Amino acid sequence: MIRLLVGLGNPGTEYEATNHNAGFWWIDAVARELKVTLQPERSYFGLVARVNRPGDQGPLWLLQPQTYMNLSGKSVAALARFFKIAPDEILVAHDELDLLPGQMKFKRGGGHAGHNGLRDIHAQLGTPDYWRLRLGIGHPGVKAEVVDYVLRKPKPEARDAIQDCIAKTLPALDLILAGEMERATMKINAKPPRPKPPRPEGLPPAPPKP
To answer: Could you tell me the pTM of the whole model?
Structure first.
């Protein structure tokens, strides 16, 4: 069962619309969905919201680290350790260079692929064994341009594609929070159905099936 949802990004108005803040955008959408407001919490170096859940499930925490990306693990680990949240009960949403805008992938574990936020979370938790929601932002095509690219605002069509992906994850939120990770993975990672090719002009309509 997931007990902590984390969105990665950089604090400050100069960064809020940049590619690197896709994880923040996701947490903002989840907070609106769950009708909670993130508030500064110095003990956890971030913006935090608590969602009370019925029964003995315990609270759900939403977190946007305010440490800047490279020190994201400082914030995640502080909250996780205080509330005794295991790595496999954490979901981190982040921007992903290896996926195009409009693409996303949900998975558990794996490497950090050079993402400095994930790198620090790995180091602070001592394991890569947490869940990730990878939100595609595309790649500039040249490794030397990556740093500038992630701190740049996406083109309007790319921003729309990322926001569309975020919206598509929300119907899977109940599955994620219930711990039905296999079903959530299938729902989030499912490829949209291919459109049927247009029927060539001049052909008669297909006969009805008996």
So the answer is: 0.90
